Amino acid sequence: METTLHFSDYKLCKLFACVCIVIFCCTQVGFTQVQNTNDIFLQNGSFEGIPKCCEPPNGWIDCGFKGETPPDVQPALDDKNQPFFSVTKSAFHGNTYLGMVVRENDTYERVSQRLIKPLLKGTCYSFSIMLCRSSTYLSASNKNEPTNLKQYTTPVILRIWGGEAFCNQKQLLAESPLIDNTDWKKFEFELEAKYDLQYLELEAFYKTPVLFPYNGNILLDNASHLTVIPCPTDPAYDKYKKERDATKSKNTVTVAKPKENAKTKTTNGNGTTAKPKERILKYLDNSKLSVGQVMKIEKLYFETDSARFKSESNTVLDELYEYLNKNKKIRIEIGGHTNNKCAEKYCERLSLLRAEAVKEYLVTKGIDTKRINCKGYGGKNPVASNSTKEGRALNQRVEIKILSIAG
Questions:
Q1: Is a pLDDT exceeding 50 seen at residue 26?
Q2: What does R_g of the chain's alpha carbons equal in angstroms?
Q3: Are 218 and 180 in contact (CB under 8 A)?
Q4: Residue 358 sits in which domain range?
């Protein structure tokens, strides 16, 4: 009788355990169905870690320049119990945040992480992060002069990249406005992946156009996960946008995804299809291209002493994008050139910035960054005499050089 009772108790316990498991599983299924299975959660988006200099928080990899110090977990104290770099800002979320700088020696800080699952090609995501600037940020600009401290307080921007490996910049997903606020503000971004991207990178960068690099800082905290949203071409996007705007706080800045030019047919007044516009880059003919061939980008205009395009340049830049997008094995160099009416270093810097501005335009629209090299030649390679106004205008140019046709 005693044995039978124990056996019955065992069966009851087993039955009870099974019921509990079923209830738990059903609860979990109900909970996970509320979440979008395509959402991507960041590791340590709050940048929590031991406050200290020169080491990124757990979950993030340093992608900075060789010989330069990595980003910092702030706010931190040095061995004299003084704030590192005089940064005293309190964290917005948790206990710590990430501090990154750009430097006058043309280096800047970046961190990257491997996503739990990739951003999917053709899918749009929302992403938010708290950003601000520290009003004081003392640091050495030269590692060989550790006591020669300078202020790193000029405002910078945040660039968000997607890639195929750590520190690989395949697609520029978004770019913030200039972060000049010294109080935390929430910045919301819309990202659209043009490729499957397994890695995410956050980069402090200069506000372009700028002729010379400078010392600046940016503080980052409370990065959100990546939430799937309708793309702007999706009919559901308008509803999503209204709901988002209705719940947005006054302390939130929405950074919209740049809209690409719509591909529409042009019609005449009588409804017939108009003739296509004449090509500007007529030399981009696959039957005539050869490796090493150099060609000027016609009708590309910049503001004086600047790397900022004039609006009329968009036509030729879009034409170049369309060509590279259709011919995915071609690799090019973009070379900037100036006349000789400026100091040598100034001319070289300006010519490089203009070449990089062209590359950034193409990469932002979806061209793989690895397919484009940039060089700034300054006034070293004139194609006309600098003694006349016309000749100097011809020497102010940006050229394409074919590096590879077969990939």
A1: no
A2: 27
A3: no
A4: 294-404
How many domains is the chain built from?
2
Same-domain check for residues 250 and 314: no
Q: What is the pTM of this model?
A: 0.65
**Residue 362: helix, strand or coil by DSSP?**
helix
Residue 232 lies in a domain: yes
| Strand stretches in 144-184, DSSP E | 149-151, 154-155, 157-163, 171-175
> Does the structure show a pLDDT above 60 at 19?
no
The 10 Å CB-count burial string (b at 16+, else e) for 88-117 is ebebbeeebbbbbbbbeeebbbbbbbebee
- Which of 391, 395, 397 has the alpha carbon at shortest distance from 358? 397
Q: Please choose, from the candidates 122, 199, 121, the residue with its C-alpha nearest in 3D space to the C-alpha of residue 160.
A: 199
On whether residue 46 sits in a domain, the answer given is no
In the prediction, which pLDDT does 82 show? 85
Task: Identify whether residues 125 and 222 lie together within a single domain.
Answer: yes
> Same domain for 221 and 336?
no
DSSP state of 311: G
DSSP state of 85: G
CA–CA distance, 328 with 131 (Å, rounded to integer): 36
Say if residues 119 and 196 touch (Cβ distance below 8 Å).
Answer: yes
What tokens does 366 get?
Answer: 């979806």
Angle between helices 314-326 and 344-365 (to 10 degrees): 60
Side chain identity at residue 3, one-letter code: T
Give yes or no: residues 227 and 310 share one domain.
no
Residues 169 and 70 in one domain: yes
Task: Tell me: do 150 and 218 sit in the same domain.
Answer: yes
Q: What is the rounded CA–CA span in Å between residue 356 and residue 206?
A: 13
Could you read off the pLDDT of 288-313 as tens digits, one per residue? 888 999 999 999 999 888 888 888 89
